[in-house]
Amino acid sequence: MRNLHAKILVLGGGFGGLSFCRHFSHPGAEITVVDRTNHHLFQPLLYQVAMAGLSAPDIAQPIRSILAHKPGLTVIMDEAVAVDLPARQVNCHKNTFPFDYLVLALGGVTSYFGHPEWETFAPGLKTIDDALRIRRNVLLAFEQAETEVDPRRLSSLMTIVVIGGGPTGVELAGACAELAHRVLCKDFDHIDPSRARIILIEASDRILSHLPPDLSDSARAQLEGLGVLVRIKSPVRSITHGRIELASGEVIEAENILWAAGIMAHPLTRKLGVETDRVGRLKVLPDLSLPGYPQVFAIGDMVSLQQENGKPVPGVAPAAMQMARHVARLISDDLDLGRGRSPRPPFRYVDKGTLATIGRSKGVALFGKIKLHGYLAWIGWLLIHLLFLIGFRNRVSVLVSWTYSYLTYRLGARLITGMPAPDPGNPSAKPGS
Predict the structure, then answer these.
(1) Contact between 90 and 9 (Cβ < 8 Å)
(2) Is 171 an active-site residue?
């Protein structure tokens, strides 16, 4: 007999969770989406917000608005804290949700490789709050540099260090260089932001190590062309306020230290009682279900799954969206007695290419055997990211903002906001200290 009241619970409103909701359709099921925020965030463009290229609303949209026309769907703003798999129940801060099917799409969090204390001094970039914090700190450093007379302190204020040579680090370093060297240089009277130091630190022997060596070399050359100092084979030993010590013993003083070096699965994965890999990703079965729990699926960054070629499915948005569509088909088949498939078909990832942007009109891209450098790679990156943006307003807004910035080198989001109120007991304290 067909289950007419199947409760499907989706944890996470990112690419995976939203794609599942948009592709799943069955009259005998109701969906509840739970996310700790009320918005879907287009994370690949967070660095643009951090570097004042875009405003936060350009890359985010309310989940309720995105799914408003989906029948049989409820959106709840809450955060899961525990999952009882045998009892088919999820406990959140404010609510408890039973489920017939569970889709885990919680994504990843920043990893500091066993040094959580570094987070205080080197913020990561995973949320809008992170981006706004970075933007405030970077812009504030230049404002403070305008009146600084101590040469050592001035050098620190005008130094930005990005740790991690993956796509996020490369994109962030390139955007930092363009902000300082080509935009802010027109805004100040007593300092020359074009002389600011932007340093990209990578522990391995090349940046963008997931790409072929020639594309890595191209990316490095393009970054250096923007004035970025690229330091490879430079593991970090310690980070304190305004200070980095490398494994070589070298010390770099920088007011802004940005972390783009690591990611791990959502901490909830380690509480499920199932096997995970070293960074907490769930080792799922080929159909994306958890071993022993055929009604529980995991998708996106929190999944560890080997492809047929032996390579892991990458933790990128296209993979999460493909996983979501696969799980949507499987659950729909399960609910249609007589049409469900046993055994279930395995998930197969289709690699549609890899891209990274490097500042204004620069980048690298790999589509199968096709390699792109510079402007063509940037155009491909731009078009693909606009395609993935959720909502027509966002696409138009981002395109207009980018076009304006491209033609004028003027960034319209250079506002320092979120400053703490002055301390009446310490009137001499500097803002933001």
Answers:
(1) yes
(2) yes
